[in-house]
Amino acid sequence: MAKAFFRLQKFxxxxxxxxxxxxxxxxxxxxxLLLQRTRLVLQQGSRGTPTNQALPVQEEVSRVGIIDPRTLxxxxxxxxLLVGMDALQEPALDQRHSPQWLMSRNSELRQLxxxxxxxxxxxxxxxxTAGSKAxxxxxxxxxxxxxxxxxxxxxxTLKGAVFYDLRKMTxxxxxxxxxxxAYSYAGLAYGAECYxxxxxxxxxxxxEQCNSECKGEKGSVCGGVNRLSVYSVQQLRAGARxxxxxxYRGCFRAPENLTDTFPVSLIQPNLTVEMCSEFCSKKEFxxxxxxxxxxxxxYPTRHFSLREGTDGRHCSGSHNASSAAGGExxxxxxxxxxxxxxxxxxxxxxxxxxxxxxxxxxxxxxxWARHLIEHATGYxxxxxxxxxxxxxxxxxxxxxxxxxxxxICVKTHESGKTEIEMFDSAILLIRNPYKSLxxxxxxxxxxxxxxxxxxxxxxxxxxxxxxxxxxxxASHVLEWLKYGKHLLIVHYEDLKQSLIPKLKEMVExxxxxxxxxxxxxxxxxxxxxxxxxGAKQKNFEPFTQEMKDLxxxxxxxxxxxxRGRNFSxxxxxxxxx
Length: 577
Description:
37% of the residues lie in helices and 14% in strands. It is α+β, with helices and mostly antiparallel strands. The longest helix has 45 residues. The radius of gyration is 31 Å and the shape is globular.
């Protein structure tokens, strides 16, 4: 009995010791976790700035017009550490606008811009993914479903307009868009791509192969991988609001042999622009050329490049076909049909050995340059950021990780030493700061294609914006000149005026070989969907004399820095106004 009691006592002592040990371990783990969380909070609050720079956000950030929205949501008192606020203090007059001061200011403000940008992109609605539920062709679609067909992005059957919406594409939206442009068929692929045309695809596919759910309409089919769900929209055309898509390109000297230059032609007495344009649209050609009673359809080529127009008086000064000259000159119109010789794009099949940046200040035309590069090279461009609006419109490289090296180049607005030295080379796109500031202000308040309101321009936000962003325009160029390894300087104005020569330089810099016809196709589609539309701001001067003096000093600083690196200086139109 005594022996059993002894064993029980020994067992209880062991349990007591074990419980004590577990309790101590639990308390130690909790203490360590609490200390670690406290350390992280301190690091997040003081990252990148000494403690003597702690300033209240609402009081100091308002000087530059950048307010952290979290301050408005959480108005509790107490200072919030802000990076780089010492840059807002007035420097000595002899140091202000010097390259060193500009780069220092840029480094300090960069954290603010990143915080604002990541907040902005985080507000983008998440992209919807296709479900695995059974889908059907709902009866509410007004067009007639023609079936599932094969789709080749390089040799498209539906050669008309193309639309992308990787978030809100529906069958009805695609049908209406094609009907408004007077097409007979609308085809959908990959759940988000819409193609218009006048010829039904010849190669049919199995119905079950069109299995991609529409991104904006659950339960509806929008084609599949290399498959088109095709609808006839002829019955919708009568009630659709037609768009004036025929664009007058000008009067040109006719090629020596029109029939050799243009594959399709029509001789018609009393020929009109509408007759010729409709004929060429049905034949799915982007150009309608009129000489006398002859209508010719085709593409821009080396023999007829549309680069050198002539005085419109040679074509009788009229857009009426019957009055066009019947000899040396011809009238040229662009039909709604898209030139498809340069619309195919893909990711690089192997990782790029050279990591190339497409760098610019915001508002300098980076998106437009990406459009040109993608269509000229046939490869997607990437982005240091993620812009859902651009991804939805067909920039599929937006979703690819910017360091994947699967894209031909990577968009960036960054200008810190570390960010610059990550790239092996860069195309540095520079635009007139007056135009860049206005474009970025429009984008900030109205998106990529809209315009800020008069109220925005006349508010306190505009002068604060200029005061903060004008220095960034200058420091962005200065830092890339200082830290960039291999640079190609491209001025937006030169690219706009001499598209093909400048685009050739950019493509050669990217080490890609392209055909002349592909470049002519890019020129024919030069604007893409990136031209601002809608009512422009009223005709008033948004820049005060004080703003002009500030910007002009930055222009002179950048011009001097470019010439110091043996680059050509800024274009003449940058000269202080």
